[in-house]
Write a structure and sequence with these properties.
15 strands, about 15% strand, binds pyridoxal-5'-phosphate, about 450 residues, 17 helices, alpha/beta
Length: about 450
């Protein structure tokens, strides 16, 4: 790239540090610059078309270029472009959205706190429970339980809850007291000869042993994604959430469902907790809440938690936590319009219906020599690539084949995510059946190209 170049790509590589990017590789290769989008498609600055098979970052539920969201934002900007909700102020969009979220979520969740991102929301959960337990005179009840391969964000507390090495290494995390349990993914972590039911029982026994070892009086919360997404799209084994819920009740531990990806119809049910049949004390929501047209996250929690926190604010004189953008009127107005679109177009039901075709069509790729497991629910799926299908043996260089498939798919006009050697898909909820077939066609092509490369390199 010429030093004199004033191309966007040149400006990018000479001015930015990108999230989740190998900066040295990026300096050489430069960015793929996205230009515009419509429905499930995006186009880059060279005019190449892609199916956005990950809905951006698991989030553009209503598809790209939805003019109703643009209009909702413009209307709110005209009326009240900004206001905060600190110190007794409020505004209609955040009030209406809080009411809507309380109405949509399980009946025991009655209170809402707004943040800008999922990471901030999970940091807020940690602080809410610390504050609550201090208020209740339980100053030792501060630890968290999470799972290996969990993703809860990257700020100091949420990054600590996340159970992925790259989010800890060289960031000096975890920085809060947290124990990470075995990842509840049967295909990868089940023992030879173990049944799924026995796997669940082993994981619940492990959770109980950790609770007793640490002391239940020291544990504030158990946090989990109902279906683990960013760590590799891993649905829980049968009975897992019922077992965890029972432990949380027995030992007075708050159960936090991080629904940042699973919320708002992704699994074909309104929320992941409904899909798997358990009741949380706290739910964390973001991404599809606005189809990510604008940043917003929300924590929805029980009256019991609210009451303890409110009492303490009465004693101290304030709740010393909140963001300039908490409940931003434009973001909450966009969320309300986005949820209205989802209702009118019945997108949760669409995710359930088209999701069945999606899972069935993808499962046909299990016959491919590279594919070990196809898994998912509704409109989220993961394909785990393996060196040996029979023994489930992973590749000796983790992530290399996954990255190959990711690039080949992008060449074929399908954007996915490679999580190690798992290829993740999470298309917009507006997907139709013809588009399912096109996704699978492009993905099979990418798998074939990669298998051919393997043979050529003598790796197969
Ligand atoms: C389950 C879950 N929680 C939290 C987050 C963090 O959200 P954000 O990137 O908005 O901080 C993510 C992001 O992917 C997520 O998947």
């Amino acid at each position: 790239m010429s030093k004199l170049s004033n191309s966007l790509a040149h400006i990018d590589v000479t001015t930015m540090l990108h999230p989740y990017t190998n900066a040295k590789v990026h300096e050489k290769n430069g960015p793929v610059i996205m230009d515009h989008g419509k429905g499930i498609h995006v186009w880059d600055s060279n005019g190449k078309e892609y199916i956005e098979g990950l809905a951006g970052l698991w989030s553009v539920a209503v598809g790209f270029g939805e003019t109703r969201l643009k209009d909702a934002a413009a209307r709110q900007m005209d009326r009240l472009s900004y206001y905060h909700i600190f110190s007794g102020k409020s505004h209609e969009p955040s009030i209406r959205l809080a009411e809507k979220l309380v109405d949509m979520t399980p009946a025991n969740l009655t209170r809402v706190f707004f943040t800008n991102s999922g990471s901030e929301a999970n940091d807020t959960v940690v602080k809410l429970l610390w504050y609550m337990n201090n208020s209740l005179g339980r100053p030792k009840k501060k630890k968290f339980i999470a799972r290996t391969k969990a993703y809860h964000g990257i700020t100091i507390a949420s990054g600590s809850l996340t159970g992925l090495p790259n989010n800890h290494r060289d960031f000096d995390l975890p920085a809060i007291p947290v124990r990470h349990l075995t990842c509840p993914h049967f295909y990868r972590f089940g023992l030879p000869g173990e049944t799924e039911v026995a796997f669940t029982a082993r994981l619940i026994a492990e959770a109980e042993a950790v609770i007793l070892e640490e002391g239940p009086e020291t544990i504030a919360g158990f946090i989990g994604e109902p279906l683990m997404a960013a760590g590799g799209v891993m649905p829980p084994p049968v009975g897992y959430w019922q077992g965890i819920e029972a432990l949380c009740r027995r030992y007075d531990i708050m159960l936090i469902a991080d629904e940042v990806i699973t919320g708002f119809g992704r699994l074909g049910s309104p929320f992941g907790v409904m899909h798997y049949g358990f009741q949380p004390d706290i739910m964390v929501l973001s991404k599809q809440i606005t189809s990510s047209y604008i940043p917003l996250a929300a924590i929805v929690f029980s009256e019991e938690i609210y009451a303890a926190i409110a009492d303490n604010t009465g004693r101290i004189g304030t709740f010393g936590h909140g963001f300039t953008g908490s409940g931003h009127p434009v973001a909450t107005a966009v969320a309300l319009e986005n949820l209205a679109i989802m209702e009118e177009r019945d997108l949760f039901a669409n995710a359930a219906r088209v999701g069945q075709h999606f899972q069935a069509a993808l499962s046909e790729l299990a016959d491919h020599p590279l594919v070990g497991e196809v898994r998912g629910a509704g409109l989220i799926a993961g394909l785990e690539l393996v060196a040996d299908k029979r023994t489930r043996r992973a590749f000796s260089t983790p992530g290399m084949v996954g990255m190959r498939v990711f690039h080949a798919a992008q060449e074929c006009g399908l954007i996915t995510r490679a999580i190690g050697d798992t290829i993740a898909l999470c298309p917009p909820l507006i997907l139709n059946e013809a588009q399912v077939l096109e996704i699978v066609r492009r993905l099979r092509q990418a798998l074939d190209v990669t298998a051919e490369w393997q043979r050529h390199e003598g790796l197969a």
